[in-house]
Amino acid sequence: MASTTRKRFRNLVPGAFLVVLFFGAAIVSFFYTPFDVETLNIKQRMLTPNAVNWLGTDHFGRDILSMLMVGARTSLAVAFIAVGIGLLFGVPLGLMAASYRGGWIDEFIMRGNDLVFAFPALVIAIMITAVFGPGAVNAIIAIGIFNIPVFARLTRGASLSLWNREFIMAARVAGKNSARISIEHILPNITNLLIVQGTIQFSLGILAEAGLSYVGLGAQPPTPSWGRMLADSQTLTTIAPHLALFPGMVIVLTVLGLNLLGDGLRDWLDPRLRRER
Amino acid sequence: MLFYLFKRITSLIATLVVASLVVFTVIEVVPGDPASYMLGMNASEDTVQALKTELGLNQGRIPRYFGWVSGMLRGDFGTSYTYRTPVADMVSERLMVSLPLALSALTLAIVLAFPAGLLAASRRGGAVDSIVMAITQLGVAIPNFWFAMWLVLLFAIKWQWFSAGGFPGWDIGFWGGMKALTLPAIALALPQASILARVLRSSLLDVLNEDYVRTARAKGLTRRQALWRHALRNAMIPVLTIIGLQFSFLLAGAIIIENVFFLPGLGRLIFQSIAQRDLIVVESVIMLLVFAVVLVTFLVDIAYAWVDPRMRRGH
Questions:
Q1: Which residues contact A181 (CB under 8 A, 6 or more apart)?
Q2: Does A230 touch chain B (CB under 8 A)?
Q3: A123, A233, A258, A276: which to substitute to probe chain B, counting the most B Cβ within 10 Å?
Q4: SS3 assignment, position B86
Q5: Labelling A198: which of A148, A154, A191, B189 has CA 20 to 30 A away?
Q6: DSSP 8-state assignment for residue A103
Q7: pLDDT at A4 (0 to 100)
């Protein structure tokens, strides 16, 4: 028993730990950072990790630990809101498509999905940037749009199988219409699935935000972001590799944490999927 | 099958038409008039108007849209505002970098993922399985451009086996060109290989639970024989979907990696064109990428329907 319990939480506990750690760092950064991230101190530039600056300083003498903490806000907020957009639009669309399954509304929604899927996330980001200019908000919109069809498809697929079940039939007989059944009976039954997919999209969002910031399409200076820290460090890797090391490691650990959390939640919430996969 | 094919082709064309409308509309609202941008601030109104007429910018939006689309159908992507060269030539020159890069990254991902996924699935729960799962878990979490930076530091700067960036062109020979694409391809392949290995493993594990695999075992095949002869072929469907998606992702997703290695691919062409308000190039490259995605999805769907008749009835 002890060993199965341990196995069950093998992913959940380290995943949750990492996620809480980085969310914590982002929240703490609003009240406290070891150093101010907007003060430049050229004399202290590119220090290697030491007792004062735990992770060293960057090419402007800013404390890297403090910058990572503030940068966590951008990365986490962008990815989190983008998941929110995906859920907000994707889930109702998916529910609607499933409740009109086979009809023209279903067909229309699904073809719309295919259309959005035809645009790679980066291309959406580039188009938005071309119109509105780069910025964190545009990164959110680009990643958010990309998330909508993901959630719409998942919701529709999971709802379709539920619509044939007896308890839905019973709700029908009781006189509830499709919209009420979708909200009161279908939605609660697919919440677990949505939570798991949400963590996965969250981790993809972190990677996407980092990539967009890296090429200059995400958060703009002076807002620190993990991707931009990497872009700044690129030309300095030979003289100060730690500038590239820490932001990258933070991204990897956050994404890893979210993926582990997603796997762990799936195992925990859905015992049917718990067999070794 | 014919009806299915017809239905899929109709939907392919419809998607492309709507996508072209979206791209055209979005790019049309981009602030900044290409003609005055090209001529600079001191240009007289007459010169700007003359250039606008020359570029066809004075026509209404609707004729311009149809001109653009019918041109693309004939393989004529228009003329770059900035360079005054045919966009088709610029794009095909860049494709000579982006396409080989995407293909070699995909090949590398497949070559790495198949043995890993097969080994992990056939030794489920064992040490090899755990190692594969741990490595791939890390592989999906590492940003490819960050990985690329370390590849450059190690193989290009420290050991100097490869150049740190740029592309010498195919004139210096096939291997010379491939050498410049090696590090970018490795960087692109790592996360893709990890995803593919995981999908292959879990798909194989699903199939290995099926009745027909049990039957195959019951008639005396070993676990390995059952895996090779019956499970692998059936497990390929989700794997093929992912490979199809990955190819289109690699074509567009190489944009970031091109930036790390200063490769003159499609991605850098888009960035440069946006900066120069060379909107016709932006529109055309985006449409080309969308076309690639839609076409690959279409081909994968058709391949399924051909292999597995059950698929033709679905949706």
A1: A99, A168, A171, A172
A2: yes
A3: A123
A4: strand
A5: B189
A6: S
A7: 56
- Write out chain B residues lying below 8 Å of A207, CB-based: 143
Question: Which ranges of chain A have pLDDT less than 70?
Answer: 1-8, 270-277
What whole-number distance in Å separates Cα of residue A46 and Cα of residue A38?
16
- Tell me which residue of B169, B165, B186 sits closest to B177, measured CA to CA: B169
Q: What is the Cα gyration radius of chain B? A: 24
Using an 8 Å Cβ cutoff, are A154 and A197 in contact?
Answer: yes
Q: Do A122 and B23 touch (CB under 8 A)?
A: no
A78, A79, B235, B242 from B198: Cα distances, Å: 27, 24, 12, 11
Q: Please, where are the H alpha helices in A32-120? A: 64-99, 104-117
- Domain with A162, as residue range(s), is 2-38+54-275
Residue B141's pLDDT is what?
Answer: 92
Mean pLDDT computed over B260-266: 88
Residue A92, domain member (yes or no): yes
pLDDT computed for residue B210 by the predictor: 81
- Count how many domains chain A has: 1
Q: Give the pLDDT band of residue B108 (cuts 50, 70, 90).
A: very high
pLDDT of res. B186: 93
User: What angle do helix axes A104-117 and A136-163 make, rounded to 10 degrees?
Assistant: 140
User: Within a domain: residue A45?
Assistant: no
Q: Is the dihedral of CA A184, A186, A187, A188 positive or negative?
A: positive
Rounded Cα distance between B280 and B24, Å, is 9
Closest chain A residue to B201, measured at CA: A277
Does the beta-carbon distance from A252 to B153 stay under 8 Å? no
Kindly indicate whether the ipTM for this predicted assembly is greater than 0.90, answering yes or no.
no
Q: Do A122 and B294 touch (CB under 8 A)?
A: no
Q: What is the structure's pLDDT at A144? A: 93
Q: Which domains does chain B have, with CATH numbers?
A: 95-313 (1.10.3720.10)
CA distance A130 to chain B (A): 6
Q: Is residue A47 part of a domain?
A: no
pLDDT at B144 over 70: yes
In a domain, A28, yes or no: yes
**The whole model's pTM is what?**
0.87
pLDDT at A5: 60
Which one of B25, B130, B149, B278 makes the best mutation probe of the A interface by having the most chain A beta carbons within 10 Å? B149
pLDDT value at position A276?
A: 45
Q: Which residue of B has its CA nearest to A238?
A: B153
Say yes or no for a CB contact (<8 Å) between A127 and B26.
Answer: yes
Please, which residues 261-300 of chain B have a Cβ atom closer than 8 Å to chain A? 267, 270-271, 274, 282, 286, 289-290, 293-294, 297
Q: What angle do CA B271, B272, B273 make, to 5 degrees?
A: 90
Q: What is the DSSP letter of A135?
A: -
User: Element (H or E) spanning B89, and its range?
Assistant: helix B87-122
CATH number, position A244: 1.10.3720.10
Mutate: best of B146, B202, B258, partner A, most A CBs <10 A = B146
